[in-house]
Write the C-alpha cells for this entry.
Amino acid sequence: MKSIIRIFLLLCCIAEVPSVFAQIAPTLFQEIQWRMIGPHRGGRTVGAVGVPQQPNVFYIGVNNGGVWKTNDFGRTWTPIFDEQSTGSIGDVAVAPSNPNIIYVGSGEGLQRPDLSVGNGIYKSTDAGKTWQHLGLTDVQQVGAVVIDPLNPDRVFVAAMGHPYGPNAERGVYRTLDGGKTWQKVLYVDENTGAVQVAIDPKNPNIVFADLWAGRQGPWENGEWNGPNSGLYKSTDGGQTWKKINKGLPTTEQGLGRIGFCIAPSNPNRMYATVDAGQYGGMFRSDDGGESWYSISNDGRYWGRGSDFAEVKVDPQNENIVYTANVVVWKSEDGGHHWTDFRGAPGGDDYHRIWINPNNPDIILIAADQGAIITVNGGKTFSSWYNQPTAQFYHVSTDNAFPYNVYGGQQESGSVGIASRGNDGQITFREWHPVGVEEYGYVAADPLNPNIIYGGKITRYDKRTGQVQNVAPEAIRSGKYRFIRTAPVLFSPVNPHTLYFAGNVLFKTNNGGNSWEVISPDLTRSEWDIPASVGIYTTAAFKTMPRRGVIYTIAPSYTDSNTIWCGTDDGYIQITRNGGKTWTNITPASITSWSKISLMDCGHFDNNTVYAAVNRIRCDDLHPHIYITHDGGKTWQEKVNGLPDNEPINVVREDPKVKGLLFAGSENAVYVSFNDGAHWQSLRLNMPATSIRDLVIKDDDIVVGTHGRSFWILDNITPLRQIAQQRITVSNPYLFQPQKALRIRWDMNTDTPLPQEEPAGQNPPDGAIIDYYLPNDYAGAVTLTIKDMAGNIVRKYASTDTPYHIPKVNIPKYWIRPQQILSSKPGMHRFLWDVHYTPLPLPPIYPIAAIYGNTAPLETAPWVLPGKYIVELEANGKKLQQNMEVIMDPRVTTSKAQLHQQFTLAKQCYEIGKTCLNRLNAIQEKLMQSNNNDNAALKALQGSNGSRRGMGSEISYHALLQQSQNVLSMLEDADMPPTVAMQNAVQQLTQQLQQLEKKWQSLANL
C-alpha cells in the first residue's frame, strides 16, 4: 500500500512540473519589448536602388540589416523588412515599369569571413508594405536581381550558392511569371555561382552574367577561386549562353570576380572591373561585350576585386563612368583618366552605385559605412550617421550608471554608448569611439569605467581621450597568432585580472603593463579537412602551419583558477590551477574547424559550461549548443526547439536563475527555461538579424547584432519568475516587480532635437509592473499602489479613459500615447510614473520634447524612496506584491533632505487639491439662481490662468497656479529645498488659510 501511495505522490509531483520539452506559452511574456539604442552609424550595405519616377525615393539592402526606404533623399530611413525571417540582404531591385514592385535577394552577395546567409527571394507589390517569399531558399547568397524594364514578371537572379561548400542551387535563375516558378538558365557546376546579371536596357533579349567560382574556407582568411569563373552573354533572353574570353584574363591567370555595366545610352559600350592579380584591371568593350581591352591597371580603381566590383555608366553619357572601391573614382573620357569622386582616409569601401536615368546628378552610393545620396552630382551628400545598421562582433557593458554598452564596429572602429540618455533618448550626444579596432572585443575596467581595453590590444582613457597600445609584444616575434576578433575580458572573480588570447592565453594584473603567458598553444596540431572544402582540398592543407586561435575565454564565476577556452579549430580546454596545466575536454562530436564561438561558465557551480559551436564555415547551418555539468567529462548537445537552419553564435546562463539560458543565432534570440532541454523564440519585436553576442546586465539582456546595432531587453524579471515558479496560464498573476528607479527620464532644458534627428530609445519611463491574465479572462482590472501603511498613492483601472488633450499650440505628433490598463488576455507591461495621482488640470507640455514620447508636466509630487504595495484586482481576486523604489544612484542628496523636499512638495500638492475642490464648489454655487453673493464668490474664485504674485489679491485660481509653480520648483531637481522655496510654501499655506476663512463665511450662506 505504501508503495502505491509513493507512486501516486510521484505521479502527482510529475504532473505539477511541465515536461522538459514543453514550450512555455509566449503569452506569458508577450509585452516585453526590445529597444534599439544605436549607434546610428551605418554598416555594410550592398543593395541600392532608386525610383526614377519618384526621385526622392530610394531603397537599400543592408547586410544583416534588412531593407530600408527613404522618401526624403536620405534625410531619414525607415526599415520595411523587419517582419521577415532574414535580415541578410544581397540586392534590391525596383521594376522600372511599376515602382510598386520590388524584388529582394537575401544573402549578402559577398565572399567574406564574417558573412551571413539568406533564404531566397522576396517580392513586394505595394512598395515595401508587405512581402511574399518566392523560393530559391538554398541559394543562400544572392549577388544581383534584375527586372526586365518593360515586364515586371520577367526577372533574373544571380545565385551565388553556398559560400562555404558546394551545392546545386546556384547560377542564373529566371522567372517569367513574377516569381511563381523559376528556371535555372545558366549553370556550370556545384562550385560556381553567379554574382552579377544585367539586361541590355535597349534589348531585353540580351543578358550578361558573371559566374564566379569563389569559396570561403573553414579557417580564417581561407578562400579560393575555381576554374570556371567568367563572363557570359545570352542573346535569346537567357535560353542559351556563350562564354566571352576575348581580351579578358583566364582562370589560369587568376581570374576571379568580374563586375561589369552596360551604357544605357549606347549598349555597345561596356566597362568592367576584373579581379585577376597582375592581369586584372579596368576593362572596356565597344562591341557589346564581344571583346575587351584594358584601360587601366591602377589598383586603386579595381583592387580588392572580390570585395568591390562595381562599375556604373552615366545613363546619358557613355564616356562618364564611375568605379566603386575603397574610394569612388570618376572618369569623363571613357575610362582613360580618373579623378577621385568620394572617399576618406581609412577607406569608406564602396559597393554599389545607382544613378537616376532622368537626372544623373542624383546618385545613390552604398558602402561599408551605409548609404549616401547626392542630388548635385557629388558636391554634397546625405549622411550615413542616420542608419542604425552597425555590425558588431561582441558586446560588453561597464559598471557605470547608467551602464554603457561597448563593441568593435565592423568597418568603422568602436562604440561606447550609454544605455539611457539624460534627455529622454539616446542621441549622438551619448556615444563615442573607445579606441578599439573594428573587430575587437571591448572590456571596461570593472573598478574604473573610464578605462577601456580592447582589440589586440589597447587601453583607452575616457578622461583624456588617449589610446595606448598595451599588447604583449611591441614587435611581433611570430610566436603568437591572432585573428580579427581576439578575446579580451576581465576575470569575474578578480577585477584586477585581464585576459587576452591568441593561440595562447595571456594574463595581466597591472593593466597591460606586463603580461604572463598562462597556457601552451591550445589549438589543434593536427586536423581533418572538412568535406565542404571539396575540390579545393590539397595535401598541403594537412601540413600547413597551425592556423587556429583561442576564440572564446570562459573564466569561472566562482574560482579564479578555473578557466575554459574554446578555439576556432574545434577544441575545448580547461585549467583548474590558473593555467599551470590544461586538459583537453573536447566532445568527440566536435570535429576539426568547428568554431567554438562563445562559452559561458555556469554561475552556480564550477563544473558547468555552455558552449555555442558555429559550423557555418563547414557549410553546416545546424544549431549546436553543448553543455557539461561535470567539468567536461560528459557533454550533451541541446538544441531541441531551435530552427534547423540557424547557427548559434552565443549562449549564456542567467546569473540569478539557474538553468535560465539565452542564445543568439544568425537570426534571433532564443530562451530556454529548463537548462537547454527546450528552446523557444525571444525575438519578440526585434527584426531578424545576426546575434553575434549577448550579455545579461543586472535585469537586462544586451545584444550586439551584426547589422542592426545594439538592442536591450529591459527587465527580464518576468522570465526569471517563469523559470523559477512555473507560472500557469490558467490564472491571473502579478509578477514580482523589479526595484523601481526614481529617475528623471528627460532632463533637457532646451528646445528639442528635430524629429528627423536619429535617436535610440531610452528605458521605459517609470516603474515597470507586469501582470498576466488568462486566455478566458473577461472583466475589468484595477491596479493600486499603496504605501506600507495602506494609503493609496495611485490607482488605475481598465475602465479609465484617456485625459483630454485641449487645443494645444504644438503638433500632436510630439505627445506620448496614453497608456490604459489592459484587461485583455495575456501578459501586460504597465508603467507607473512614480508620482502621486495627478491633479485634473489641462496638460502642459515641456519645451524639451521627445518626438512621439512627450509626457505632460507633472502636477503631483514624486514618491519617496522606499517600499510600496502593488495590488492587482481581477474579477474580485486581489493579488499583491511589494515593490521597492530606489533613487537614481547619481543623486547624493540625503534621505532627510529628500524627505524635506517631499513634505514641501506634498503641501503644495494638497493646497492644489483643496483649491480645485473649492473652485468646483464655487462654480456650483454660482450656478444656483437664488445666489446673491456672486461678486464675493467670483472674487474668491479668481480668473483662470491668473499669474498674480504672492503679494497680490489672492484667489483660489491664483493660489492653484502658484502652488503648481512652487511644486515645479521643488521637484525640478533632487536637491535640498532652498530657503526661498521653504518660505514660499509657508506663504502659500498662510494664503490658503485666509481663503478658507472667506470660503467658510460664504459656504454656509
Notes: DSSP finds eight helices and 67 strands in the chain.
